[in-house]
Every structure is written in structure tokens, then in C-alpha cells.
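Limitations

Structures in this collection are predictions, not experimental determinations, and the ligand pose is part of the prediction. Treat each record accordingly. The example that follows, with fe (ii) ion as the small molecule, is included so readers can see exactly what is and is not provided: the inputs are given verbatim, and the output is the predicted complex.
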Amino acid sequence: MAVETEATIEERTQAFRDHVTSGGKVEMTDWMPDEYRRSVLKFIEMHANSEIMGVLPEREWINRAPSVRRKLALTSKVQDEVGHGQLLYRLAEDLGKPREQMLEDLMAGRTKFHNVFHYPTHTWADVGIIAWLVDAAAILSQKALLTCSYAPYARTMQKICWEESFHIKHGYDIVLSMMNGTEEQRAMVQEALDRWWGPLMQFHGPPTPVEKDKDLAWRIKSKGNEQLRQEFLSMYVPRILDLGLSIPDPNLRYDEETGRWQYTEPSWEELRSVVTGHGPRSQERLAFRRLNYDQGEWVRQAVMTAS
Ligand SMILES: [Fe+2]
Ligand SMILES: [Fe+2]
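Predicted complex:
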């Protein structure tokens, strides 16, 4: 065998890097460097975890929704999000990590989910703010995944993005109804926005230089953290103010000269602490996920026996 004619791992990795950085796509069955496989898997796994953990704060409100129409809409959103989790765990599984292992790691706190799902929901206004603004922040990240170098993920994101854009309408409709309601309802929305603003500003993560962001280098994602936060502010600050709400950051302003939003530095320490399981509802939500998993054991047994 002519070993000398075979490309070395370094050469193959470099050729792969050139391929993805020039916009090339990677399919599940293609050769890929281990580091790329690990990075895509970790990224998709965290996304999947966030979808199924993200429904827990909303689930608490299904029975308390103020009308049948609101109950149906919220139930549908929760179903959509769980469906996203299902699609994403399948994708991650294709990259080599069994789904059982992913669920075990999530429930044991070994893997992460997004910061915004570690916080409590105090009023119905939280349901509106989550579906409108948390989903808005999420869809900006997710739209940047439509051009992901890992083609199966990019394809799946088309369906997910379509559904997410509908969630935003559902959230906006709740917020708009409350803002057109009583003084007390408007105060509820403002109070919810005041609590969610910090986590929303932390959502996309600290500004990271392009050369240090591996997910950008592999073109798993196409936009950096700060770019996404700037886009969020450009799109949603005017809409929030239009509704008569105020934003709880006295330093927030658009700088015409630089074309960028200035704001109070979010607490990156809080973000780190929250995503490592020290948020106000982290342990309670994980405990609920474990309980739910145990209660579903008989269903898994029945399905496995039947197949
Ligand atoms: Fe989702
Ligand atoms: Fe959503």
C-alpha cells in the first residue's frame, strides 16, 4: 500500500477547513475531523437541550392561560418546541452520541441549556415576553444556522425557523393585548420586561473575537455573539418602545457615529453561573425533567418491546 500517496490527517483537515470556510457543506456520511464532529455535536446537543428545557417555564402556564384560545396557542407552541428537541436529538445522535446518553447528561447537569430557561415565570406577562422576545433572540441565532456548514442541521433549521417565527407572533399578540388592556396589565408587562432584560442581553454570550470562536471558524454558525445582540437591539428596541414600554437600561442608546448600540455591560458572571446550573430555577427544572423521564419509563419499555 502506497502510504506516501495518502493524505495525512493534517492535510485532510486543512482541505476540510478550506471546504467549509469557502461555503462548502458537510453531510453526515462525509469524512470530518474529530474536532469538527465534537463541535457540531456539542452545539446541536445544547440546542436540543434548550428546546426541551425551554418548555418547562411555559408549561406551568397552560392551565392558567386566560382563555381557551390562549391555552390552545400555548399548548401548540409547547408541542412545537418538544418537536424541535426531537429533531435535534436525532441529528446529534447521527454524529455518534446515543440519545439516552444525551438525556442522562442533561439530567445530571453535565451538559448545558440556554440561560433564559433557568429563570422563573411569575405572571402571564412572562409568557408573552418569553414567546415574543426570548424566541426573537433565539430566532436570530437560528437564522444564522441556515447557512451552517453541517448540511443536515441547516436543513432542519428551515422547519424550526418557520415555526419559531410563528411563536414570535403568538408572543407579540399576548403582549399587545395586555398593553391595550388595563393599567394593571400594562404594569405586569413592564415588570416582566424589567426582569427579562438582563437575561435577554446575556443570551447571545459575551463578545468573542472571531479567531477565538471555533464555531465561527468551522462555519457551524455564521454570525458572532455581538453581531447577533446588535441585530436584536436594532430590531426590537424600536418595537418595545412603540408599545409604550421602557427598557431598564439608562445607558442604552444607538450611536450614530459607530452605527452600534451602546448598553450597560451585561453580567457575564451571572451568565456563567446560571448556565452551569446555579440559576434561580436550574435545579428545580432538572428535577422535574428527571421525574418526567422516570414517569415515561413504561412508555419507552412498551415501545422497545413492540419494535
Ligand atoms: Fe424551538
Ligand atoms: Fe419557539
